[in-house]
Amino acid sequence: MAGRIEARLKELGIELPQAAAPVAAYVPYTQSGNTLYVSGQVTVWNGERRFVGKLGQDFTVEQGQQAARLCALNIIAQAKAACGGDLDRVVRVLRLGGFVNGTPDFHDHPLVINGASELMMQVFGDAGKHARAAVGAPSLPGNVAVEVDAILELA
């Protein structure tokens, strides 16, 4: 029998990507007590880099929201791996940190990161409501448009 969160993903028509392997000297997540820290996830779908470029130059705010949503899907995939496949262990999304690769005159970082925040609330309901940062960056790894990290509480 599928868990509550797996059933919710299916109901929303959401498929998760494979949890990505790290590309440098770090691990995809760490856990201390009931707190899960998920490393920054970028715009990769099963090994294919997507949304390469800058907001305000190559992408609109709406496209940036799609990029942030993809980062959030990767966060959920990493959480699933950390929880041994049982996403029902996620008690709460505590915090998201969003980084937007934008031009110097791009200022809609919070609107872009809403793509990740809204997905967390769709998937986890009230437990998906979280604290957040949304900041601009002059560049991101691989020139991706968005990167998002997360802190989750686990049962």
Automatic annotation (TrEMBL):
<dbReference type="Pfam" id="PF14588">
    <property type="entry name" value="YjgF_endoribonc"/>
</dbReference>
<dbReference type="InterPro" id="IPR035959">
    <property type="entry name" value="RutC-like_sf"/>
</dbReference>
<protein>
    <submittedName>
        <fullName>Endoribonuclease</fullName>
    </submittedName>
</protein>
<dbReference type="InterPro" id="IPR013813">
    <property type="entry name" value="Endoribo_LPSP/chorism_mut-like"/>
</dbReference>
<feature type="domain" description="Endoribonuclease L-PSP/chorismate mutase-like">
    <location>
        <begin position="6"/>
        <end position="148"/>
    </location>
</feature>
